[in-house]
Amino acid sequence: xxxxxxxxxxxxxxxxxxxxxxxxxxxxxxxxxxxxxxxxxxxxxxxxxxxxxxxxxxxxxxxxxxxxxxxxxxxxxxxxxxxxxxxxxxxxxxxxxxxxxxxxxxxxxxxxxxxxxxxxxxxxxxxxxxxxxxxxxxxxxxxxxxxxxxxxxxxxxxxxxxxxxxxxxxxxxxxxxxxxxxxxxxxxxxxxxxxxxxxxx
Amino acid sequence: xxxxxxxxxxxxxxxxxxxxxxxxxxxxxxxxxxxxxxxxxxxxxxxxxxxxxxxxxxxxxxxxxxxxxxxxxxxxxxxxxxxxxxxxxxxxxxxxxxxxxxxxxxxxxxxxxxxxxxxxxxxxxxxxxxxxxxxxxxxxxxxxxxxxxxxxxxxxxxxxxxxxxx
Lengths: 201, 166
Fold this sequence. Notes:
The complex is a heterodimer.
Chain A: E1 6-8, H1 13-62, H2 65-75, H3 85-104, H4 110-125, H5 132-154, H6 159-170, H7 182-199
Helix pairs in contact in A: 2-3, 2-7, 3-4, 3-5, 3-7, 4-5, 5-6, 5-7, 6-7
Chain B: E1 8-10, E2 17-19, E3 30-32, E4 38-48, E5 53-61, H1 63-73, E6 91-95, E7 99-102, E8 107-110, H2 115-120, H3 132-142
Parallel strand pairs in B: 3-8
Antiparallel strand pairs in B: 1-4, 3-4, 4-5, 5-6, 7-8
């Protein structure tokens, strides 16, 4: 003889309540924290971006002329790239800085600086050319001459700095590849920056 | 048992009840007559809520039962009608105490009811609200008394082995 008993099902609501509590616990333990972290990260990133943009703005806009050149030279880690973008940019900033000081002191240097700019631009036109050192040296010689003349005319107390920049320019060897004399080129920029910084005070 | 108080329910109606653990839920299993012929499948249970046990198996009968009923028992040559089962009336009930359950074969076997008796038993359409009148009729169909008398529904109706003495 068969027998089949029945029984009441276990109530399901405790499971539902338990799962809801578990889900809430998981939410608060993980997603809430993640949300906070995410928000925090986003906020931090935004801040970083804002700060970077502000820095860029300072570099590109606020730090014009001498300040931009000095900042550029001091922040450089000496990584001169194959296409000499660094040298080109440094020279152009140096020319702009010299123009700024010239204008401020009513000293005419436009013609020489325009020629120097042509040599500076020639560096990046053909990255494979081997005459970059020629252009760099021509540009640095012209700029250092302008700086020396400017010093003699307007800043007599900065002769030592002007001479030092001139000597640094003369140290650049046209027969040697520019990449092999990065230190010499960098030294010129450092001396020029030091001179212009003092002229600008 | 108080016959005025509804105590029989289809298990499917009782959403908060289930077959107790350690008991076979035989719904969907084949039902075989005393000779081993399949007569249908278990579709549901009629359960006593107060006793928390199955009282009847609700069987959806096989077409062979329906066809036999139509051919032999639907009309009789002497004009006397047996139970007249209409189209769609393909369910009947069996007291739980009149079957054995084989978990291995997953089937249910009636211990005393043959194919002919099944065919002659009054059937109902699925979902029919089983009442005491139908219970008595089907039980008397299965358990015929030697003297031809009819068992009536009373307080002792379920106090039989066929109902596992509720």
